[in-house]
Amino acid sequence: MRTTFIATTTAALLAAGVAGAQTTITFQDQGPEREPFNEEAIRLFEEANPDIDVEYAWQANEPYKTGIKVMMESNDPPDVYFVWAGSFANDIADTGVVSEISDSETRGDAWTRGASKGIVDQFRHNDGLYGVPAEIYTKTMWKNDAFFDDNGLEVPETLDELRTLCGRIREVDPLMVPISFGASESWTINHYLTILFQRHVPIETALADYQLQAPADELFTHPGYEKALEDFVSLIDAQCFNDGINSVTPEVGRTMFATELAAMNFCGSWCPPMFDDQGFAGRYSMFPFPRIEGAEGDQDGVLVGAVGYQVSEASDEREAALKFVSHLLSPEMAALRARMIGRIPSNNAALEDGDLAPMAAALLDMATSAPVSVPPLNTIVETSVSDVILKSGQDLVAGTITPAEFMDRVRAQARDAASRG
Amino acid sequence: MAATIRRRHGTGFDLVMIAPALALFGLFIVWPAVQALVTSLHAEPTRGGGFVGVANYRDMASDPVFWIAMKNNVLFILCNLVFQVGVGTVFAALIDQGIRRGSTVIRTIIFAPLVIAPVAIGVIWAMLLEPNFGLVRQTFNATGLPFPRQGLLGNPDLAFASIVAVGAWNYIGFMMTIMLAAMQGIPRDLYEAARLDGSSPLQTFWNITLPGVRGALILCALIVVVGSFKTFELVYVLTRGGPGNTTQVLGTYIVEAAFQLFRPNYAAGMSVVVLVVAILFGSLQVWSGRRA
Question: Which residues does residue A55 pair with via DSSP β-bridges, in sequence order?
C-alpha cells in the first residue's frame, strides 16, 4: 500500500513537472524605441503560448552593432536577435552561427502571410534564408515649416538650389544652422553618400561595384562617384552644416532640428517619433533629397533598407524561437508595430487606414513609389570596403583628403576584397 | 617568521597557499592569452577558420591602420610621459617644497579626477568639448578666441592632442601622489644643507629631489608606458579612433577589427602583439624595481 502510494505520488509529481515544463527563449533587440511594442507582443505571445517564456533585452543603436557580434560569438547567444539586412546580417550568417530558416518559409509560418518577396530576399544569402524582415526604413529631408514660411524660403528642388538656400538661411538668421548634421558615428555620412552616389552613378553600375561583381580593375571607376563626393564637399563649403560635424552625435543633430536650432535635417523614417517626443510635432514636413542637374544616376531614387530578426543556430529551442519570430512578424503584429511605435512594417498585409501615422504613411508612399531604391552603403557594400568609405567620409569632412584620394582608397580596398573572393 | 612557517610546513604548504592565485592567474590570464595566440593562427570564421600560420601577422605588417594605431600608441606613451609623469613630478615638488598653505586642498583637487572611471571622464569631456554648445566652445566665444570649425575632437590635427590633455587631467594626480610620497621620504636635512650652501630651488630640485625619487620615477614611467600601450576607454568614448583613423590606437583598432570588420582572428593577433609588448615593459618594471 505504502509502495503504491509513493509510486503514484512520484508519477503524479513527474507528470506535473512535465506538464509545467517551461521553455525559455532569449530575445535581443536594438534601441529603446521598440520597447513598448516588444513588451506588448511578448505579452500576447506568452498568453497564447503559456509554456514559452521570452526573456527580452535591448541595447542602444551604436553599442548594439558591436554587442550583438560579441554575443553571437559567445557560448550563450540570444535565440532571436535584431539585424540590419545586407552585409551586417550576411557577415553574421557567414560565421555559421545563424539558423537557416527556409523551412519556416516553406511551411508558411505566420510571418510569410503577405510578406513582400523583394524585402524577404534581402535576407537571402548563399542560397539560404537567414532572417525575417520586420521593418523598412527610408531617409529624406525634413524642414522647419514655420521658419520656411516666415522667411519666404522655397523647398530646394536641385542641389544648386540647396546650396543657395544654405547661404540664404545664414543671411536671414546667422544663428540658424541650415542643415544639422552629426557624424561622430560615420554611418550618417554614408547615408548622404548613398543618395549622392545614387544621383550620380547608374544603378546597375553602382550595384555591381557595391557587390564586387564588376571586373576588379573597373570597380568604382565611374566618374560619378568623384562628382558625388565633390557635391558633398560643396555642401560643407557652402556652410550648409553646423560646426564640428565629425564630433557631433547623430542625436544632437536631430535635437538641433527638433529644437529649432536648424532649419533642415536629413533623417530617417525613425526620426518623426523622435521629433514629436521633443515637442516638435506638426511643425515640420518632409521633402525629397534634391535632384542634381546633368548627373547620370537616378534623380528620384531613394534610400530604403530593411531590418529584421535572425534565429541563432545554437538555439536549444529553435522551434519555439521560430514560433516567436513568426508571431512577432505576423501581419497582425506588424499593424500593432505601426500603431504603437510609428515604424513602417515590412509586411503591410494587415495594415488598416490610420495604423500608420500620416508622416510614416507618406514615407512609405515615397519608398514604394520611387523608381529606384538602394540600401545604405554600409549595409550593402562589402564590409572592408564599407569601412574604408566610413572612415574616409570623416576624412573628407575634415578636409584631409580630396574626393580623388577618397576614391583611390575605395578602389584599392575593393580590388583587395575582390581578390580575396 | 616566514622562514619559520616554511620550515614547519614545507614546500607543499607553499604550493597550497599560492594555488588559488595560480589557478585564477591561469584561468583568467594565461588561458585567454593562449587562446588568443591559437586563434590568431587561424583564418577568420567567415573564411573557414582553418590553420593559416602567421598569415594574420603578415597582414598586420602591411595594414596601414595597424601602423597608424601603433604610431599613435608610441606617441601617446611619449606625450603621457611628459605630461603625466613630468607635470606630476613638478606638481609634487611644488607641494613638497613650495606651497605652505592649502597643500592638502590642492592635492585633493589634483587627485580627484583619478577616482572617476575613465569612461565617465570621456563622456564628461565629450560634452565639454561638444563643438556647438560645449563649455569649451562657450569659453572661446566669450573670450573672442576663434574656435576650430571642426571642433577639437573632429579636427584631425587637434583630436589626438585633446585626448592627451584629457588623459593628463585624469592621471596627473596619481603620478603626483606617487612622486610626492617618494619626495617626502628624502631626508629634510639634505634640503637644509643645500639651502646653507646657497643652492637655488632649481638646483635643489635637480641635484637632490630628482636623484632621491629615481625609483619612483621609473615606476611611474613604466605604469604610464604599459597603461598607454593598453589605452582604450578614453579614445573609444571621445573619438572612436576618428576622425577617419587619426586617433586610432591598438585598443580601439582591436575592437573595431573584431566586432565591426568581423575579423576576430586578426584582432586576436593584434591582442597578442599588445600582450607581448606589455610583458616586455612589465618585465622591465620588475627588473628595474629589483635594481632600485
Answer: A26
Domain of residue A294: give its range: 138-303+373-420
A296, A201 contact by CB (below 8 A): yes
Q: A24 and A128, same structural domain?
A: yes
Q: Are A240 and A163 in contact (CB under 8 A)?
A: yes
The CATH number of residue A405's host domain is 3.40.190.10
Q: Is the ipTM of this complex over 0.85?
A: no
pLDDT of residue A1: 46
| B45, B132, B150 ranked by CB distance to A246: nearest | B150
> Which residue from A minimizes the CA distance to B126?
A247
CA distance linking residue B229 with residue A395, whole number of Å = 25
Contact across the interface for B264 and A73, Cβ inside 8 Å: yes
DSSP state of B51: B
Residue listed under C-alpha cell 487606414: A353
Domain count, chain A: 2
Task: Give yes or no for a contact between A183 and A394, defined as CB atoms under 8 angstroms apart.
Answer: yes
User: Is the peptide bond between B243 and the residue preceding it cis, with omega within 30 degrees of 0?
Assistant: yes
Closest CA to A222 of A421, A410, A390, A416: A410
Q: Which domains, and CATH codes, for chain B?
A: 63-291 (1.10.3720.10)
Whether residues A400 and B153 touch (CB distance < 8 A) is answered with no
Candidate from B132, B159, B239 with C-beta closest to A243: B132
pLDDT digits over A149-207, tens only?
Answer: 999 999 999 999 999 999 999 999 999 999 999 999 889 999 999 999 999 999 999 99
Q: Could you read off the pLDDT of A125-148 as tens digits, one per residue?
A: 988 999 999 999 999 999 999 999
In a domain, A24, yes or no: yes
